[in-house]
Amino acid sequence: MLRDQFPGLNIQVHGKPLVYLDNAATAQRPQAVIDAVNDYYLNHNANIHRGVHSLSESATELYEQARVSLAKLINAPSHKDLIFVRGCTEGVNLVAQTFVRNRVKAGDEILISHLEHHSNIVPWQLVCEQTGAKLKVIPMNEQGELVLDDLDQLLNEKTRFMAVGHVSNALGTINPVKKLIQAAHDKGVPVLIDGAQAMPHLKVDVQDLDCDFYTVSGHKMYGPTGSGVLYGKAEHLNAMPPYHGGGEMISKVTFDSTVYNAVPAKFEAGTPNIAGGIGLGAAAEFMMKAGLDNITQRDHELRIYAEQKLNEVSGLRVFGTAKEKAPVFSFVIDGIHAHDIGTIIDHYGVAIRTGHHCTMPIFQFFGVAGSCRASFAFYNTEQEVDVLVESLHKAKAMFT
Length: 400
Description:
Elements: E1 12-13, E2 16-17, E3 19-20, H1 31-43, H2 54-74, E4 82-85, H3 88-100, E5 109-113, H4 122-131, E6 134-138, H5 151-154, E7 159-165, H6 177-186, E8 191-194, H7 206-209, E9 213-217, E10 228-232, H8 234-239, E11 250-253, E12 258-260, H9 274-290, H10 292-310, E13 316-319, E14 328-333, H11 338-346, E15 350-351, E16 353-355, H12 360-366, E17 371-375, H13 382-397
Parallel strand pairs: 3-15, 5-6, 5-7, 7-8, 8-9
Antiparallel strand pairs: 1-2, 4-10, 9-10, 11-12, 13-14, 14-17, 16-17
Helix pairs in contact: 1-9, 2-9, 10-13, 11-13
């Protein structure tokens, strides 16, 4: 079984088997990823690109092969269209400051959605503060779905850029990003898709989507923390100025001027997270071997089962009931603070997230400060759903 390849799932918490349901915050790692990172440090530990000795060359080969694997995973036209970053947050900020900032002025508009993670809100607010542009928001409804009735008005002659999450980390909503991209492109507006929560659950094809940029977070898709890639269309990446200055991103430096390296090196200044990149490549290979369609199907089965079982808990309210959603459930229980629930069920080995999940505007919409969030990965089981629900019943009993 694929679950057996995740050693982190075998530990105990408070003497109980771990039920890990905090996957939207970070996933567990398969042995293949752990082995790839260890292999680099044990057998290939050297800096990349600049060395001619054997160890440096082997490390470089592993790192660049990881880029090829990631390009294959998302069907990028070329591995050269992928920039290694620390995660989606850095990817969004890179695009905000090197592509968008120079394209907007006072009175222009940047369009996002109500479902965004803070990391796809704050970078655009910074650009607006720097340029005088305005941030516009696609609204959401009670089901946690985007309301697109007025999209033609939101996408207007002032719109210069759109940035939308593929899947909501708080509600699990799968946004109609292909439709949004087409609508934006019809008006000449480039689009970034935040893929942090989509990559662990969906088969992503950036050519089919036709997005201008797509961000990937490594630790959400079973790879190392501090790893990720930004995909960008080649014409954009070639036209964009560097984000950081330093070694590797240059081809010639004098005290008078600098000639920048070609993409992707132009955006990868300094020694990168080599082990993280190699581990992320191993995660991509693991997912492709497991079968992306198999992962999506398993997610669907878990979502349906969890929805049914959570409905059995009286007083429990789930936020976000979109028709298309990933197995992510944000909920509250009448009369019990979310932090209390999280603390109590931890004693039964159940790990969930509590708080606003870096999506304050979503919970402001629903009129609550935050929620509990149980988020599933394909390695979770129906038995773990049962343990979650049983622990929630026990938590309720403590407050009655």
